[in-house]
Amino acid sequence: MDEIISILQNSHKMEQLILKLKTIGENSPQFQTFKTSIQSFHLNKPPRGLHQKNILQHAFKYSDSRECFDSFRLVCKSWQNSIETIRLDIAPPITIFPELCHHERHGHFPRFYIKYLKIFKNLDVRLRHNFDLTKWSSIANLLLQNMNHLGKIRIDTEAVPFKFKIFLFYLFENSKFTLNNLSINCWDTLPVIALPNLTCFSICIYNNYNNDSGTFDYLMKTVVDVMYKDLKLFEICHIEKSPNILKHMIENYQNHFVCAPEISILEHIPLKLSHLKLSKLATYRYASSIEYLILHVKDLQVPYEDGWDYHREILSFFPNLKGVLFLYNRLYKPRV
Q1: With helix as H, strand as E and coil as C, how does 221-289 read?
Q2: Mind listing the pLDDT tens digit for each residue in 1-14?
Q3: pLDDT: is 134 or 265 the higher one?
Q4: Which tens digit of pLDDT belongs to each residue from 277-290?
Q5: Which domains, from first to last, does the chain contain?
Q6: Residue 228, class by beta-carbon neighbours within 10 Å (0-12 exposed, 13-18 middle, 19+ buried)?
């Protein structure tokens, strides 16, 4: 046993073996005996799992989606099938829309994109001001035909294409029972369609909605209350840019707020959770409603900078505090 193993581990001996096999030829008795031995140990077969679809797809989930399609898909038929039928819990790269504009020809695209778009569970629609809107109709059709059963959709457009609400209706219809997370900045284009499994909904408010509390009220009473009945989280971004809508929310939805990025909101709204920079520690109207704080740490090397010399006074400002998260370099450290 030891002698055989030492020979197999000796690179010089293995080179001699290869040379002798080439010299004696395939039809020699020695070669046939050696071949039979290799086959008896199944050394002529590929490694276990090399062609198993579930193992391959699990491995491909940790690879770049484009590299999978451009390279790994070409290895063999089993790899091709595994990649073309995989569903990745991500969105296509943000470069996909400029890329589609470049390759669009009279409403048609290379077949590559038809297969490529099918593998994604999420979609991120980002249309900037320099986007070629003349290509949108073709791109929209491509998306609707090949992106179904999505779990997360994000709409972040600087340029709103013509009939965009119709596009969103069919996009949502294709994922009606699978969509659980939706984020949109042009929320006045939301179509009337029920999304029974939507749990997270996020909107962004910009300056042009400052005086449009009526549209926002329609959103709340029709879209949120009626069409998204299973909603657990409703997030509003950049509301500081729309004081009229903020005032409307304080007057009508005060008890529905949970978290805000600025502690000063406590002067107007009772919250359960809030971010806090200790330099802004003060007495607020609804401070007693706070149960959890996210404390910002600016520099670990200078612990008493930015108001941290007052950290012992937190409990006197927030008497019902149950827990604290420390936020440093965008990482959360829990402390209860």
Answers
A1: HHHHHHHCCCCCEEEEECHHHCHHHHHHHHHHCHHHCCEECCHHHHHCCCCCEEEECHHHCCCCCCHHH
A2: 888 888 888 888 88
A3: 134
A4: 777 677 778 888 88
A5: 10-40 (no CATH), 87-256 (3.80.10), 260-336 (no CATH)
A6: buried
